[in-house]
């Protein structure tokens, strides 16, 4: 296979209606594989549905910071405790068992510098975000000696593509609750061209099913639902 098309999605956060819209959009591009970059269930109205859809994809799925917390049975907040209760023991264990990263060596790769590396936040932990304007010293700490042509991630919910000296950063933002002032779901498309030994990176934007999601949230039983509806609609960090 000379070319390889991979879709990266991240930060679903239990918003299954948004996930359905993104998966429908991805289907139209005829990708070879989907990779899920973590934060699957926590903060939205349908955590079990989000897990079920992701598992049915049969694709690589990595662990995000909220997946780890929910998997550990975290109960520090009302919404988190509600999510843990919804997931049950088996669901929490599935989250805990997810791997930290996923590496793709494309057809004809000459070294690890041709690879795609997918993480949740950065190659060393799933908490520290790689900001779009991160400086040289910060990038050195967060990326280090990581060998890859493309580093794809989510976590910060702000979509961007940034090309460094040897590696391209692709922040695919969030399916479930974007925070860059644009209430559209985002996902990344990465295409390998074996002839040029290079990846093409793109960001795709999908209209958010807001009205239907609000109805779903109000019917879900999630705590403090009106507060979370307003947070979703604002689509910014506060």
What are the low-pLDDT stretches, counting only 5+ consecutive residues below 50? none
Tell me the span between the first and last alpha carbons: 45 Å
Number of strands: 9
Q: What's the overall geometry? A: globular
Look at the helices and sheets and give the structural class. alpha/beta
Radius of gyration: 17 Å
In the CATH hierarchy, what is the architecture of the domain at 3-102 and 171-234 at level 2? 4-Layer Sandwich
Number of helices: 7
Biggest sheet character: 5 strands, mixed
CATH superfamily of the domain at 3-102 and 171-234: Metallo-dependent phosphatases
CATH class assignment of the domain at 3-102 and 171-234: Alpha Beta
Mean pLDDT: 96
CATH topology of the domain at 3-102 and 171-234: Purple Acid Phosphatase, chain A, domain 2
Q: Give the strand content.
A: 15-25%
Strands of the largest sheet, in order across it?
A: 3-4-5-7-6
Helix content: 25-40%
SSE map:
Layout: E1 3-9, H1 16-27, E2 33-36, H2 47-57, H3 65-71, H4 78-96, E3 102-104, E4 116-118, H5 136-143, E5 150-153, E6 160-163, E7 168-171, E8 184-193, E9 198-207, H6 210-220, H7 225-234
Parallel strand pairs: 1-2, 4-5, 5-7
Antiparallel strand pairs: 1-8, 3-4, 6-7, 8-9
Helix pairs in contact: 3-4, 6-7
């Amino acid at each position: 296979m000379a070319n390889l098309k991979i879709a990266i999605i991240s930060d679903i956060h239990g918003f299954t209606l948004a996930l359905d819209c993104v998966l429908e959009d991805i289907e139209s591009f005829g990708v070879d594989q989907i990779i899920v970059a973590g934060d699957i269930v926590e903060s939205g109205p349908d955590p079990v549905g989000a897990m079920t859809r992701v598992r049915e994809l049969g694709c690589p799925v990595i662990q995000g910071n909220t997946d780890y917390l929910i998997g550990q049975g975290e109960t520090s907040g009302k919404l988190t405790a509600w999510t843990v209760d919804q997931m049950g023991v088996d669901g929490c264990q599935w989250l805990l068992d997810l791997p930290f990263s996923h590496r793709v060596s494309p057809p004809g790769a000459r070294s690890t510098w041709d690879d795609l590396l997918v993480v949740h936040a950065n190659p060393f932990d799933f908490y520290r975000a790689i900001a779009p304007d991160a400086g040289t010293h910060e990038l050195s700490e967060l990326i280090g000696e990581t060998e890859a042509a493309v580093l794809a991630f989510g976590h910060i919910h702000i979509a961007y593509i940034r090309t460094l000296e040897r590696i391209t950063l692709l922040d695919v933002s969030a399916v479930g609750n974007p925070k860059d002032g644009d209430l559209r779901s985002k996902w990344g498309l990465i295409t390998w061209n074996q002839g040029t030994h290079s990846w093409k990176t793109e960001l795709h934007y999908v209209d958010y099913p807001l009205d239907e999601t609000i109805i779903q949230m109000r019917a879900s039983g999630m705590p403090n639902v009106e507060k979370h509806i307003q947070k979703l609609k604002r689509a910014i960090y506060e």
